[in-house]
Amino acid sequence: MPAFCDVALPVPLDRAFTYALNGEVPGVGCRVLVPFRNEKLAGVVIRVHDDPPPVEAKPLLAILDPDPIISGTLLELAQWIAQYYIAPLGEVLRTMLPLTAEVRRVVLYRIADAGRQALYEGAEKGSSRRSKLSPEEQNIEYAVLNYLENGEAARASPLRSATGASLQLLQGMLRKRWITRETAADARDARRTVRYAVIVADTRLPKLNENQQIILAELAGAGGELPVVELRKLTVPQSTLATLVKRELVRIEERAADFHLTGLGIKRPEYELNFQQRAAFDAITAAADSGEFRPHLLHGVTGSGKTAVYLAVMRHALDRGKSAILLVPEIGLTPAMAAQLHHAFASDVALLHSALTPEERAEQWHRIRRGDARIVVGTRSAIFAPVQNLGLIVVDEEHDSSYKQEEMPRYHARDVAVMRAKFSSATIVLGSATPSLESWQNAERGRYAKIEMHERVNQRPLPLVELIDMRREFQETGQEQLFSRSLIEETKATIERGEQAIILLNRRGYSFVVMCRACGEKLECENCAISLTYHKALTSDDARAHVGQRLECHYCGYKRTVPKLCPKCESEHLYFLGAGSQQGEERLQEIFPGARIGRMDRDTVRGRHDLERLLTRLHSGEINLLVGTQMIAKGHDIHGVTLVGVVGCDHALGMPDFRASERVFQLMTQVSGRAGRGELPGKVIVQTYHPDHYAIECAAKHDFHAFVERELKYRRWMHYPPFQVLANVLIQSQHLEEAAGWAATLGRWFQQTQLTGVRVLGPATAPIARIKRIYRFHLVMKAEKRQLLAKTLRAMLAHADAAGIPRRNLIVDVDAVSLM
Questions:
Q1: Contact between residue 315 and residue 344 where contact means Cβ atoms under 8 Å apart
Q2: One domain for residues 33 and 73
Q3: Contact present, 16 and 8 (Cβ < 8 Å)
Q4: Domain of residue 679, residue span
Q5: Are residues 523 and 571 in the same domain?
Q6: Which of 295, 285, 282, 277 is closest to 449 using CA atoms?
Q7: String of b and e for 166-199 (b: at least 16 CB within 10 Å)?
């Protein structure tokens, strides 16, 4: 039998750790509990063997899974991600397993030698020991030491309950090294259950009091059983139910909790595939039936019916005994998409996204793994769903930057989806009205099969786009207005006709800069080098009135009250610059007092149920004017919308990002596509200060090919993707001098190293120099070949390790989407 196993742990180290087996042998892909430093961690077994390590191996503590929960294909995919994105394998595997609810992390405290000495001296010398603590706090310290005197580790909760110790006091004892802190991990049952009260059948009722009769009558009226939580709503003492259970008139049963899909009120009308949809379906299914692996790029204009093609090819996969995964970029799009899938495939659908509770995620994950759900819909992490017999992967809105993970491991779900399809011999479809230039270039080079859908369903016309030059608007009116005269007139006419309008204002809050007119001071976040956004207080009759007037940082969440005077010069002349979606809503209410206005942004949509309610009101026509951020631009199919206004979209053209033009073109095209999806034609009004920019011009003409031609010339000239590969390396620290020193160390190494085929820009201060009190420097690497980039990055990390730069302070972002 093998004597050792290698375990990948969720730590920022590019290696596995060897542990000794004590009889039972775990399978490759099983989770195990192991000791690591002063902790107990859950990891994944990646190898069992008889090769002894150079040092004595610690013993394995427990095997959490009787059978492997990571399949061979997923383990192969995890190893590819670790290599491609220069990420620790343990971190990748942790991302693959949304089972945190099944492992309980426990904090333990143990007495140290210095603590024993302090306890002895306290007993000998009474209270003569010098201390800044009060006598009461000193007594609590001794109570803690007495509690831990037997040397055994104690859990934090019982220790604090028994001694009255606060968390701050325990931290002080840790600093004095009187006690040590450990963490442990234990397996726990994460199944979601509901307690039901059930009437015991054929029981003669004895004499009952009024409260007991009320409960039994409620149960009888519900067919003899109800969830206990429902009975708690009755106006009877909680002890009444316990009395009925004790008298054996009612029994309590634990049952598995149901998982309800949301958004089921939003249904797409069924219709037959038209000619271009049928051609797309035939091309995709022919490849699936042949077993040939070749990604398909489905480029269809907004409203061309790509979702109907997705549903049809998924049905084809199910008919062949296969499973399918559908990725969507935003959690907000999941309920509506899940509703359509549930309408088509009923209980075969499972959801996976971060808005679920840990218990719900674990439940859905196990449903998928058992084969109870063969259709999976979710955001980027759903690409790791443990589906059986995978036959199809669909990536909707494949261009969206939300598919890029912005924390370790920094994978791009679209590219991971392509590799998973390759490893599983599955078919993959990448769909978008505005494909990323990387995917488009792959199609042009023949790596992807390209399918184009040029017309909307039922030959509906694409909306007419009118550009409003805001420079001329200012010259003619003499005033800086948020909404142009043309947009106001068209919105008024739209509402009077009984139609709906959407206005995109892609900034949250009321104003995004607060400045002092006297000294020019900008109010910035104390944690981040970014201006605070002003959020105006809402009226008392508003459903969101709990959100008061404040300044907020949208990077770290820091909030503060709005000062009456400038913090620097104490001037009272504070000036609020820029308009966000909240100010847009207020202005529209002033201009159109009779309109039924709604707002969609991160302040009004905080959970999946908020979005569902808002979309239901929009679909029903209760809302006839919607203002919001880019959340309104993605995937929504509201047939009553005939006008779309785009306000302030072009400010992104000035961002220090080579993808700025592509982002503006995509956003304009996507939000324009919300207009005219029903029987009535649509119109789009775009307010811009750059009407001559090619991204604006091409979006106005719905000319994707012209935009691609112009943008690819720029990318080729500047050696940017898709013609070269790119990585962004962030060097960060809580101390400015430390971060700057490490950046200089790496800069010198690059200068002294002979690099062939690799360009290095920097190091330099990152565009946002400080986030969450972390100072940031970065350097950008561009290479002709991916192998050269990976080799250089690994050599850089090796040098950083030799130079004493901690791995956790270096972020390597391969195929970076944002350089901020």
A1: yes
A2: yes
A3: yes
A4: 460-509+582-721
A5: yes
A6: 295
A7: eeebbebbeeeebbbbeebbeeeebeeeeebbeb
DSSP for 256-273 reads: EPP---S-TT--PPP---
Q: Are 35 and 58 in contact (CB under 8 A)?
A: yes
Read off the CATH number of the domain in which 164 is found: 1.10.10
Pair (166, 91) in one structural domain: no
On whether residue 61 sits in a domain, the answer given is: yes
d(CA 94, CA 762): 33
Nearest of 415, 457, 200, 142 to residue 309 by alpha carbon: 457
DSSP helix/strand/coil, 201: coil
The answer to whether position 325 is within a domain reads yes
pLDDT given at position 247: 83
Q: What is the model's pLDDT at position 550?
A: 87
Residues 304 and 450 in one domain: yes
Question: Last residue of some domain: 229, 256, 283?
Answer: 256
Please tell me whether residues 498 and 529 are part of one structural domain.
Answer: no
Locate 440 and state its tokens. Answer: 């488009």
DSSP code per residue over 258-320:
P---S-TT--PPP----HHHHHHHHHHHHHHHHT----EEEEE-TTS-HHHHHHHHHHHHHHT
- Give the Cα separation of 102 and 693 in Å (integer): 53
Strands 375-378 and 349-352: parallel
CB 699 within 8 A of CB 465: yes
Do 318 and 241 sit in the same domain of this protein?
Answer: no
Which tokens go with 809?
Answer: 């302070």
Q: Residue 270 falls within a domain, yes or no?
A: no
- pLDDT, tens digit, 9 for 90 and up, residues 434-457: 999 999 999 999 999 999 999 998
Q: Are residues 77 and 143 in the same domain?
A: no
Q: Output the domain CATH number for residue 604.
A: 3.40.50.300
Global pTM reads 0.83
Residue 192 and residue 360: Cα distance in Å, rounded?
A: 7
> Which of 721, 753, 788 is the last residue in one of the domains?
721
* Structural domains in the chain (count): 7
Kindly report the backbone phi and psi dihedral angles of residue 333, in degrees, each rounded to the nearest multiple of 5, phi listed first. -85, -15
The verdict on 419 and 529 lying in the same domain is no
Distance CA 475, CA 151 (A): 80
Three-state secondary-structure class, residue 168: helix
pLDDT digits (tens, 9 = 90+) for 584-628: 999 999 999 999 999 988 888 776 677 778 888 888 889 999 998
Alpha-carbon distance values, 773 to 362, 569, 732, 804, 820 (Å): 34, 25, 10, 22, 16
pLDDT, tens digit, 9 for 90 and up, residues 174-226: 988 899 887 766 655 556 667 888 888 665 667 788 888 888 888 888 888 88
Q: Cα separations (Å) of 207 from 23, 211, 390, 418, 722? A: 60, 12, 60, 69, 81
What does the DSSP 8-state code read for residue 243? H
> Cα–Cα distance between 356 and 377 in angstroms, integer?
13
Tokens standing for residue 365: 């994950």
CATH of the domain at 71: 3.40.1440.60
- Enumerate the H helices of 331-400 as residue ranges: 334-345, 358-370
Q: What is the mean pLDDT of residues 339-347?
A: 80
Say if residue 606 is exposed, middle or buried (CB neighbours under 10 Å; 0-12, 13-18, 19+).
exposed
Question: Residue 418 pLDDT > 90, yes or no?
Answer: yes
The answer to whether residue 784 is domain-embedded is: yes
